[in-house]
Amino acid sequence: MVDGDERSWFEYRRLVMGELDRISRQITMLESKIDDQKSLRDAEVSDLRVKIGMLEVKAGIYGALSGLLVAIGTVLMSFFMRGGK
């Protein structure tokens, strides 16, 4: 009876070790996928920061041009209202 119990234990041990090995490989694979996704996310965040910076510059330029046009319009209206004097 002891021999049968030992054989059963060794088979069970082999099965458990096989499952632990399979789980370990899956965890390693998932960690690799997570690292890949983090890299993609970081690249996308960097791209977004560049795009936001470009939009901030454009907004500043457009705002300055709009202010300049209003100032020129005001000067011209003032000039024409006085009759060109």
Describe the protein.
The chain is an all-alpha fold and 85 residues long. The protein is 94% helix and 0% strand. It contains one helix and no strands. It is rod-shaped, with a radius of gyration of 36 Å. The chain starts with a helix and ends with a helix.
Mean pLDDT: 91
What general form does the structure show? rod-shaped
Q: Please report the number of helical segments.
A: 1
Give the amount of beta strand, in percent.
Answer: under 5%
Report the count of strand segments: 0
Structural class: mainly alpha
Low-confidence stretches: none
In oligomeric terms, what are we looking at? single chain
What is the N-to-C succession of helices and strands? Answer: H
Rg on CA atoms, Å: 36 Å
| Intertermini distance | 122 Å
Q: What kind of sheet is the major sheet? A: none
Percent helix = over 70%
For the structure shown, list the relevant keywords.
mainly alpha; rod-shaped; 0% strand; single chain; 1 helix; 85 residues
Short description:
With 85 residues, the protein is mainly α.
Write the layout of secondary structure elements.
Blueprint lengths: L1 H80 L4
